[in-house]
């Protein structure tokens, strides 16, 4: 019974983290009101493409998190890789806000730090959550470039300039996403070898 209870607790924690991540992405996009622009639509959420868009992001997020060998972190990465797109909501509704403001290095660091800290305090794997969250953003970038729409506000909120990444950069983003999940494993091995 305690194994079932622990699995339920972990699943609820992953859902809570993913929900908080989506809320952070949406809140990050509200910074766009400080510098109104004509909303840009990338067309990836048309009814014909929604399944491909969600499936592609989940697949890239899951693939990036496989080195963790932790099913809960893999599930979280798949969810986060899709849910960062909550920053599209305001632009999609026609508000004068640039879409994709959370597609930013600073958002990735802020979200990873906050979710990692909350997980650490709850004794739910803070370091793993930190790296998986960074990885999910990189995996998301990778899929966006792969799908042909690699335009990001990579420095928001410091700059609202849009940067375009060409198709050949998608494997670079994916390698970074996978590498971020290898870091804790290597770090753990080095610490253990020093202690022996």
Description:
The termini are far apart. By secondary structure, the chain is mostly helical. The protein has one domain (2-195). Strands 1-2 form a two-stranded antiparallel sheet. It has helices at 2-29, 50-65, 71-83, 89-92, 105-121, 126-146, 170-195; strands at 151-152, 163-164.
Write a brief caption for the model.
With 196 residues, the chain is mostly helical. It is built from 7 helices and 2 strands; from the N terminus they run ααααααββα.
The geometry reads as: globular
The amount of helix comes to 55-70%
> Which class best fits the helix and strand makeup?
mainly alpha
Average pLDDT figure: 89
Strand order of the largest sheet: 1-2
Strand tally, please?
2
Approximately what portion of the residues adopt beta-strand conformation? under 5%
Number of domains: 1
Radius of gyration: 17 Å
Unreliable segments of 5+ consecutive residues: none
State the end-to-end distance.
36 Å
Note the total helix count. Answer: 7
Helix/strand order: HHHHHHEEH
Biggest sheet character:
2 strands, antiparallel
Key terms:
globular; 2% strand; mainly alpha; 2 strands; two-stranded antiparallel sheet; 7 helices; single chain; 196 residues; 64% helix
Topology record:
Blueprint lengths: L1 H28 L20 H16 L5 H13 L5 H4 L12 H17 L4 H21 L4 E2 L10 E2 L5 H26 L1
Antiparallel strand pairs: 1-2
